[in-house]
TrEMBL record:
Protein name per the record: Vanillate O-demethylase monooxygenase subunit
A GO MF term: metal ion binding
Pfam families: Rieske, VanA_C
Keyword hit for Transferase: yes
Organism of origin: Eoetvoesiella caeni
Keyword Zinc: no
InterPro entries: Cholesterol_7-desaturase, Rieske_2Fe-2S, Rieske_2Fe-2S_sf, VanA_C_cat
Signal peptide, first to last residue: none
Keyword set, alphabetical order: 2Fe-2S, Iron, Iron-sulfur, Metal-binding, Methyltransferase, Monooxygenase, Oxidoreductase, Transferase
Domain called Rieske: residue spans: 8-111
Annotated GO biological process: methylation
Length: 348
């Protein structure tokens, strides 16, 4: 499978990489080592010694350097070998570990796996996540044995909510009949749903002035490459504009581990009960459980049926609810083809 490699993917939650340990994760079938230097800055290296291919995360830290556990070659944070304890200590020119650019923003460590120079300008701005107290935001990581595009499909097509999820976020059947409003650019797909329901969505109703009466609701979903989806949900009653209503700002991020497995990262910031840490934990756990226990089994089943077949070559029967997810697939496909074409020209 081809990936859009000259782009920023989430390698880890910031909280997953501490000051002492050697953290490792597989991305695009490639083992990556991540650790923090003594000044706190995170760095990423190929998690494989060039000598006998031992995983470097099995080694140890020596200041800002990493020592391979197998034969004690030492590498600095740029991947250069700085010490060979064998023979006369000569260091072969090929004793170099590939390094990867990292950015730490919005509670995530973002990695650039491509060969082109890393472009910080291609990292979307998700600064609303940074606006508010730590008790008003939650982060989660989930491992899924499914292709990353299936997770993108799932979030871009919210009509599944009434059929897959329980009482907490049901729209009383309002979403499926709606064809979302779509906007496209060269690097994004945006979809919006608006509807009314009585009573309001349960997860928001308790924070509305009249919890049992009709409310107006919306979902805004924006995909940006390679696999970043920002989802906003809100509710309001009477003449109150959505901007002054109750809502949440969520981020869904999918990073391919292999062709059939994905690192799924999630963040959510709300505009209500922002100082309640217990509520924060409860909400995050409920959202994680909903995905793992409700979305998860379906996506795993789809992955088993599709295996490594191409989505469009399988000739899916497409419905009105597929419009946003199909547009994302086609745009991502186009961006990958364009990137591969540029790389082929450079190689020639």
């Amino acid at each position: 499978m081809s990936y859009l490699k000259n782009a920023w993917y989430v390698a880890a939650l910031s909280s997953e990489v501490n000051d002492a340990d050697l953290f490792h994760r597989k991305i695009f079938n490639t083992s990556v080592l991540i650790y923090r230097k003594q000044n706190g800055e995170a760095v990423a290296l190929r998690d494989r010694c060039p000598h006998r291919f031992a995983p470097l995360h099995l080694g140890k830290r020596d200041g800002d350097e990493v020592v391979c556990h197998y034969h004690a070659l030492r590498f600095d944070c740029s991947g250069k070998c700085t010490h060979n304890p064998h023979g006369e200590g000569n260091i072969p020119k090929a004793a170099q570990v590939k390094s990867y650019p990292l950015l730490e923003k919005h509670g995530f460590l973002w990695i650039w796996m491509g060969e082109q120079a890393a472009d910080p300008g291609l990292l979307p701005d998700y600064s609303p996540l940074d606006d508010g107290p730590p008790t008003g935001i939650g982060y989660a990581y989930m491992h899924m044995n499914a292709n990353y595009q299936l997770i993108i499909d799932n979030v871009m097509d919210l009509s599944h909510i009434d059929h897959v999820h329980g009482e907490a976020i049901t729209t009383r059947g309002q979403l499926s009949p709606i064809v979302p409003k779509i906007q496209e650019t060269e690097r994004s797909v945006f979809a919006r749903w608006e509807w009314k329901q009585t009573p309001p969505i349960l997860v928001l109703s308790g924070f509305l002035p009249k919890p049992t009466e009709e409310a107006r609701h919306f979902f805004d979903v924006t995909w940006m490459p390679p696999a970043n989806i920002q989802l906003s949900v809100g509710g309001a009653q009477g003449d109150t504009p959505f901007e002054q209503g109750v809502g949440a700002y969520d981020l869904h991020l999918a990073t391919p581990e292999t062709d059939g497995s994905t690192h799924y990262f999630f963040a959510t910031r709300r505009n209500h009960l922002v100082d309640d840490a217990n509520f924060n934990d409860m909400k995050l756990n409920a959202m994680r459980d909903a995905f793992v226990n409700e979305d998860g089994p379906i996506l795993l089943g789809v992955q088993e049926e599709m295996e490594d077949q191409d989505f469009f070559e399988m000739k899916p029967v497409l419905l009105s609810n597929d419009i946003a997810s199909v547009k994302v697939r086609r745009l991502l496909q186009s961006l990958i083809a364009k990137e591969n074409g540029v790389l082929a020209e450079k190689a020639a």
